[in-house]
Amino acid sequence: MFFSLSAIGLIEIETAFDLSEYSLAGMLFFYGYTARILSGAKIFRSIFAGIVSLFIGLLIANIKILSDFLKKYI
User: Fold this and answer.
1) Is residue 48 part of a domain?
2) Which of 22, 28, 30, 62 has the highest count of CB atoms within 10 angstroms of its CB?
């Protein structure tokens, strides 16, 4: 969606990349939070699960980026 807005000239491509990264982070948190809420956990534990799932997802993404970088330059 963000890249479509960039294609028609409403936002710049850098902004589209930034918005897609932020929406990914929001979705990762939301999925972890919602999974815990639906399992019957309390709010604090659900928020904690959302934060943990966010950090795990971002860690995996950064490991992938780092491995691609190392393949390219090593």
Assistant:
1) yes
2) 28
* Domain extent at residue 48: 25-74
Is residue 24 helix, strand or coil? helix
* C-alpha distances out from residue 29 to 8, 14, 50, 53, Å: 30, 23, 4, 6
Q: DSSP of 27-63, one letter per residue?
A: HHHHHHHHHHHHTT--HHHHHHHHHHHHHHHHHHHHH
Write out pLDDT tens, residues 21-43. 889 889 999 999 999 999 999 99
> Is 10 within the bounds of a domain?
no
pTM for the model stands at: 0.75
